[in-house]
């Protein structure tokens, strides 16, 4: 008779492991998540006023990135400005982009509009502005990093990512199930058809994701997915190489599955198939998502372990339904053995999924507040709820079956065959409910991998230092250092009378000293911009620290006074 629970998993032990893992993850400090990238700094900074045009622009991001063809453009006072060379990623610093500028760049306000692809495969864009010469310029609020995606494109993209996950589950989880739990299943036509569908889904997904990524990276729509230039650009990135490797491994795995179906008892073929579909194939997902932005062996191992456990569990559920199908039913003793073996795989998969999932979630969210304060957090909570419901539904439903099967011979008219049919019917219902939840988990995951995590590095905001110095003649000098950090900056001095009107003093001069480093005094070149208003031209702050500013104001032919203040520079 069919006994689906002769070796019952120790769920209290599983729960204890999960609680321990949860405590270890929550007790460890969350590292800053790296997806998507943020623009941390630029030289010149957003809103800078320069005496002369720089030879190049340097932008530093929070993670490695790849460039998009024509993704960086320069707009001047008279329209687009042609760059003398192609922007490039600094070979010494993968997070840094260098944009060459024309040597004859004249006075005026210039805007740099940029679009790049971060290491997690998602495009980001922004803009910054700087002025050359005696011009007024303000900061652009979009200098950090923004994301935009065509709605139709993102929907289709998510659907094909889901198809890829489903294909991996059926191929990898199905191969493991057949090798370990049900070797006799290779001879079943439904098993072979299911593997064939999984093979086709995986291959179609891999081949389709490359052109979709091309349009996604370039900020275009579905109508431009077959652009050969875009496809070529993607194939030269980590994302493209990972998907190309995925397609090759799917072809290899398909060949191994075909060979294994003809020699199901071959241990060598079984090991090769499992290694290809449950280790090498899941590794290709690392190069196409958030894990690619997280450096370190641990992050890579956690990512591969998470995908492998998902495939082992969810794929096995589908093939277990084939074992319990009404058509050509599997003998009770064989089904009992299959169920017991898969119960061990499912238990181990749940533990690995929980531990790796908690690790990845904590790395991505960073704080408990972010679980409800960001779209990523909400999706993550939804996924965790679906997985929890999946585990709970499976354990409760199987407990019901367990009790019914173990019940006494069931009263008049109930034969062993009837009790066996009842147990199979109940377990089929349980597995179908679990399969529905599994489809939902994969759907949420397909959207989650394209969503920025809750914990993200913030774009560095330029710090402005201001100070007011009182003059002995009753007026005051108001100072503004913008930005107050190393690199190119600007010092503005506004001299006011007692009643706050502009005081047209004949001369203002200033020097900067950094005593702790023995620098200075550095002469600040101040040019008169209007009545009582002076501004620096080409001020360079070489080091961070507490700078001392000495300001000299000559209010008449014979009256001159020098004031002092401290200006911290980051």
Notes on the protein architecture:
With 570 residues, the protein is α+β, with helices and mostly antiparallel strands. It has 11 helices and 19 strands. The chain has helices at 11-27, 151-181, 189-218, 228-235, 238-262, 267-283, 297-323, 332-365, 370-373, 375-406, 416-448; strands at 39-43, 48-50, 56-61, 65-76, 79-81, 88-89, 96-100, 108-118, 123-132, 465-470, 476-482, 487-496, 507-514, 519-524, 526-530, 533-536, 539-541, 545-554, 560-569. Strands 10, 11, 12, 15, 16 and 17 form a 6-stranded antiparallel beta sheet that branches. The N and C termini lie far apart (76 Å).
Summarize the structure.
The protein is of the alpha+beta class. Helix content is 45%, strand content 22%.
Largest sheet, in brief, is: 6 strands, antiparallel
Q: Per the principal axes of the C-alpha atoms, what is the gross shape?
A: elongated
Average predicted confidence as pLDDT? 78
Please identify the oligomeric state.
single chain
* Poorly predicted ranges: 5-35, 404-413, 455-460
> So how many helices?
11
Cα separation of the termini: 76 Å
Order of helix and strand elements from N to C terminus: HEEEEEEEEEHHHHHHHHHHEEEEEEEEEE
Strand content: 15-25%
SSE-based structural type: alpha+beta
């Amino acid at each position: 008779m069919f006994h689906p629970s002769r070796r019952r998993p120790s769920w209290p032990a599983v729960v204890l492991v999960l609680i321990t893992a949860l405590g270890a993850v929550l007790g460890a400090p969350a590292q800053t998540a790296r997806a998507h990238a943020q623009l941390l700094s630029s030289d010149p900074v957003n809103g800078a006023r320069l005496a002369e045009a720089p030879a190049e622009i340097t932008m530093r991001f929070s993670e490695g990135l790849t460039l998009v063809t024509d993704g960086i453009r320069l707009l001047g006072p008279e329209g687009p400005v042609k760059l003398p060379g192609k922007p490039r990623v600094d070979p010494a610093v993968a997070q840094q982009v260098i944009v060459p500028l024309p040597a004859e760049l004249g006075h005026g306000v210039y805007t740099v509009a940029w679009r790049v692809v971060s290491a997690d495969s998602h495009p980001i864009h922004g803009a910054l502005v700087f002025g050359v010469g005696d011009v007024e310029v303000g900061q652009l609020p979009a200098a950090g990093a923004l994301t935009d995606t065509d709605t139709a494109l993102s929907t289709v993209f998510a659907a094909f990512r889901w198809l890829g996950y489903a294909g991996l589950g059926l191929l990898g989880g199905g191969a493991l199930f057949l090798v370990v739990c049900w070797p006799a299943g290779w001879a079943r036509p439904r098993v072979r058809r299911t593997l064939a569908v999984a093979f086709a889904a995986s291959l179609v997904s891999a081949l389709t994701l490359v052109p979709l990524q091309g349009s996604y990276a370039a900020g275009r729509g579905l109508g431009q997915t077959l652009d050969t230039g875009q496809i070529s650009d993607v194939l030269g990135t980590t994302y493209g190489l990972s998907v190309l490797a995925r397609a090759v491994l799917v072809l290899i795995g398909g060949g191994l599955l075909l060979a294994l179906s003809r020699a199901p008892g071959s241990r060598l073929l079984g090991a090769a198939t499992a290694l290809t579909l449950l280790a090498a194939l899941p590794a290709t997902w690392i190069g196409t998502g958030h894990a690619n932005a997280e450096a370190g062996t641990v992050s890579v191992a956690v990512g591969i372990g998470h995908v492998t456990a998902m495939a082992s569990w969810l794929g096995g559920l589908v093939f277990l339904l084939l074992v319990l199908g009404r058509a050509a039913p599997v003998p009770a003793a064989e089904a009992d053995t299959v169920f017991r073996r898969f119960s061990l795989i499912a238990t181990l998969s749940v533990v690995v999924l929980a531990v790796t999932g908690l690790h990845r979630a904590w790395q991505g969210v960073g704080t408990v507040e972010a679980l409800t304060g960001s779209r990523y957090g909400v999706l993550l909570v939804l996924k965790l709820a679906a997985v929890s419901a999946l585990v709970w539904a499976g354990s409760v439903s199987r407990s019901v079956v367990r009790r019914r099967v173990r019940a006494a011979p069931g009263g008049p008219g109930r034969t062993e065959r009837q009790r066996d049919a009842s147990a199979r019917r109940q377990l089929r219902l349980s597995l179908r409910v679990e399969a529905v939840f599994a489809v939902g988990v994969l759907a949420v995951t397909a959207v989650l991998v394209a969503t920025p995590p809750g914990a993200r590095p913030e774009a560095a905001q330029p710090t402005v230092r201001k100070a007011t110095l009182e003059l002995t003649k009753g007026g005051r000098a108001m100072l503004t250092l913008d930005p107050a950090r190393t690199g190119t900056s600007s010092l503005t001095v506004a001299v006011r009378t007692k009643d706050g009107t502009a005081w047209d003093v004949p001369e203002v001069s200033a020097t900067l000293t950094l005593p702790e480093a023995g620098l200075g005094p550095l002469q600040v070149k101040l040019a008169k911009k209007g009545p009582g208003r002076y501004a620096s031209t080409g001020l360079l702050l070489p080091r961070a620290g507490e700078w001392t500013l000495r300001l000299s104001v000559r209010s008449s032919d014979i009256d001159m006074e020098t004031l002092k203040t401290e200006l911290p520079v980051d």
